[in-house]
Amino acid sequence: MNRDPEQQRRFETRAVHSGERRARHKETGTNGPGTFYPVSTPIYASTTFSHPNIETTDRVLGGEEPGYSYARYDNPTVTAFERAITSLEGSEEARAFAFGSGMAAMHAALAAAELTSGATVLAAEQLYGSTATLLVQVFGAAGVEVCFVDCYDLGAVEKRVREKSPRAVVIESISNPLLRVSDVPAIAQITQAAGAALIVDNTFGTPYLQRPLDLGANIVVHSATKYLSGHGDITAGLVVTGAPYDGAVEQLRKLVGGVIGPFEAWLAHRGLKTLPLRMSRQCENAREIASWLNSHPKIAHVNHPSLKDHPDTEVARRVLSDTGGLVSFELASGGAEGREAAFAFLNSLELCVKAPSLGDVYTLAIHPATSSHRELSPSRRERLGVKESLIRMSVGIEHPQDLISDLEQALEKI
Fold first, then answer.
1. Residue 72 catalytic?
2. Could you tell me which of 141, 206, 139, 138 has the C-alpha nearest to residue 172?
3. What is the value of pTM for the model shown?
C-alpha cells in the first residue's frame, strides 16, 4: 500500500504543516497584487458559498462534487483544522469532525454509536463528571441502559461486556482527576470480540501521548478547548473516527448544528502547531512538580504516572509516549477539614491560576469536588476517590522552580 507522503513525516512536522490550504489566489486589475499564496489558511467568515453556476451548486449539495455550500455543513477554515487533526491521529482511513465544544463532540460520538432506546452503554466509573451526567440524564432518559465498570480491572470489564452486550464502551485514555491510565489495547480486544464500539476520550492524552485508533479504538473524542488549542481562548471539540461511524457523525453535525465557528477553528489550528513543544515541556514540568510534592510533609498523596506508587505505571509505559501534564494531590488535612484546607491553599496561590479548565500554557489549579465532579453525589465522589482535600493541577510551560516556589508558599499558609 502506498502511504500518504504526509504521514511519513514526523509528528512535529505534521503539527506545523498539516491542514494548511495554501491554495493559489489570483486578483486581476491595474492595482491588484497578482497571484499569491496565503501561508496561513484564511478565516473564511462566510455563512454561504457560491459557485460559477447553479449546476455546480447542485452537485456540491448532492455530494457529487467536493466543495462548500453552507457553514453548517462545512467551511474551508474548519476543514483545515480537521485535516490537521486527522494527520496527527495517524490513521489514513479516519476523518475528524470539529464541534463547538467537547461535550457536543461526546454527544455526537455516543449518538453515532446508535445508543437508542433498548441499547446498553458500558462506561468507566472514573469518567469526567459531565460525561457521566450526559449518559445518565440524556441517554438514560431516552431508554438507554447506562452501566458503569472499573475500567482498570480488565477482568471486570470482560465480565460486564459479556453480561450486558453493550453497544458501546466509553473510557478515557487518562482519567480525571486521579490520572489513571486505561489499557486501551486490552479493552479494545474485549470490545472487538463483543462487537461493541470503543469510544475513547483522549482529551488528557492528545495525539502527542496516544493515538487510540492505532490501539484498536473505534471513535476518539477530544475537548479541543484544552491541550489541542492550548491557550485558553476558545471552546471546541472533535470526533475522530472511520467507517461505519464517520457518516453518522457527519450527518448528526449537519442536523443538530453543533458546529465550530471559523475563527475558533483558525485559533485551534494555530494552537495545534505548538502542541509537541507545549506538551513536552508540560510533561517535564509535571514530573518535576510531582516528585517535589511527593516528599512534602503537608501532602498526603500524589497522583502522576511517573511515580513508582502509581497503580498504572506499567500500563502508562506501554500506551503513552510520555507521562502527561497533569498532577493531582491530596492535602494532609483530610476529612471535614479537607475542603477548608483546599480552598485556603488555592486562595493562597499567586502564580498558578485558579480556574476550572486544563491544558493551557499557564498553570491552572482547581478543586475537583466543586468543579468537574460537583454534579456527582458526595458518596459517589468519595467512592471514586475525589476527596474534599484533592487538588488538580494542570501544569503549564512556566519555569518549574517558579511553580514550585508558588506551591511552597501556599502550602505554608495552611
1. yes
2. 206
3. 0.94
